[in-house]
């Protein structure tokens, strides 16, 4: 149980285009979803926290107009990287959490974005 | 002081060795603590939650020291397959928002 999927698993795009990444909890309802970015040999950096039906809460330094997050249902959240540039190339990972004592997170397999 | 600090390593140990990692956190109000394992170019996977009383899962033992604000992970009888990066995660005090350490790299060699 507690499976999270992400789509696509990798994407290559031209500079200036927008890319949408989907995160789905397949067998549970996620009260909260998190979006992370990870550059090579660095730790996961939390970008934003989203709850179903409400606006995402962005971490300091993350541009909300560039990284659009929509959490339409308890099983789906999307991250859109708008007008992507080469510096946005990274490994984007989502995680989902359900209400529990310890709020464990279950991670999607990640999306590797390369912007040319 | 960073919110969550880990020694990046790498820790290079032979098979069968016992190895321990520490992780310190700055927010004394934090209530939830976890160890995750991340393999190269893969997503993190939960290894174990860390409970106040300490907990053990096979060869893995996790401890929490609230007074000194650190958690530890002990791996006994290391296997080659234990080679990975071990991430310490601490939820921010009074919330469920997680903060990840930069990870500790473990290399187990024959």
What does this structure look like?
The complex is a heterodimer of chains A (116) and B (110). Chain A is an all-beta fold. The mean pLDDT of chain A is 90. Helices cover 0% and strands 52% of the residues of chain A. The N and C termini of chain A lie far apart (37 Å). In chain A, strands 2, 4, 5, 6, 9, 10 and 11 form a seven-stranded mixed beta sheet that branches. In chain A, strands 1-3-8-7 form a four-stranded antiparallel beta sheet, with no helix packed on it. In chain A, a hairpin with a 5-residue loop joins β5 and β6. With 110 residues, chain B is mainly beta. Helix content of chain B is 0%, strand content 52%. In chain B, the strands form two sheets. In chain B, strands 2, 4, 5, 9, 10 and 11 form a six-stranded mixed beta sheet that branches. In chain B, β4 and β5 form a beta hairpin. At the A-B interface, β4, β5, β9 and β10 of A face β5, β9 and β10 of B.
Layout of strands and helices, then pairs:
The complex is a heterodimer of chains A (116) and B (110).
Chain A: E1 4-7, E2 10-13, E3 19-25, E4 32-38, E5 45-51, E6 57-58, E7 67-73, E8 76-81, E9 90-97, E10 105-107, E11 111-115
Parallel strand pairs in A: 2-11
Antiparallel strand pairs in A: 1-3, 3-8, 4-5, 4-9, 5-6, 7-8, 9-10, 9-11
Chain B: E1 4-6, E2 11-14, E3 19-25, E4 33-38, E5 45-49, E6 55-57, E7 60-65, E8 70-75, E9 84-91, E10 98-100, E11 104-109
Parallel strand pairs in B: 2-11
Antiparallel strand pairs in B: 1-3, 3-8, 4-5, 4-9, 6-7, 7-8, 9-10, 9-11
Quick overview:
Chain A is mostly beta strands. Chain A has no helices and eleven strands. The model of chain A has no long low-confidence stretch (mean pLDDT 90).
Number of helices of chain A: 0
Arithmetic mean pLDDT of chain A: 90
The succession of helices and strands of chain B, N to C, reads: EEEEEEEEEEE
Radius of gyration of chain A: 13 Å
Give the overall shape of chain A, derived from the CA principal axes: globular
Strand content of chain B: over 45%
Please bin the fraction of helical residues of chain B.
Answer: under 10%
The chain pair with the largest interface is: A-B, 22 and 20 residues
Kindly report the oligomeric state of this protein.
heterodimer
* Biggest beta sheet attributes of chain B: 6 strands, mixed
The SS-based structural class of chain A is mainly beta
């Amino acid at each position: 149980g507690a499976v999270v999927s992400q789509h696509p698993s990798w994407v290559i795009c031209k500079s200036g285009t927008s890319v949408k990444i989907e995160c789905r909890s397949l067998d549970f309802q996620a009260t909260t979803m998190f979006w992370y970015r990870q550059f090579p040999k660095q730790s996961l950096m939390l970008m934003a926290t989203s709850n179903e039906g409400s606006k995402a809460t962005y971490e300091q330094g993350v541009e909300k107009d560039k990284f659009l997050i929509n959490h339409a249902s308890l099983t789906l959240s999307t991250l859109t990287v708008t007008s992507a540039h080469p510096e946005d190339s990274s490994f984007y990972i989502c995680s989902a959490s359900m209400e529990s004592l310890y709020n464990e997170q279950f991670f999607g397999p990640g999306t590797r974005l390369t912007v040319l | 002081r960073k919110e969550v600090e880990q020694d990046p390593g790498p820790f290079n140990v032979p098979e069968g060795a016992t190895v321990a990692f520490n992780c310190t956190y700055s927010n004394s109000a934090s209530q939830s603590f976890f160890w995750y394992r991340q393999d190269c170019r893969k997503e993190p996977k939960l290894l174990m939650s860390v409970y106040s009383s300490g907990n053990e899962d096979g060869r893995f033992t996790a401890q929490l020291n609230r007074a000194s604000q650190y958690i530890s992970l002990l791996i006994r009888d290391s296997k080659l397959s234990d080679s990975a990066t071990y991430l310490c995660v601490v939820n921010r005090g009074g919330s469920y928002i997680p903060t990840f350490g930069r990870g500790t790299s473990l290399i187990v060699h024959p």
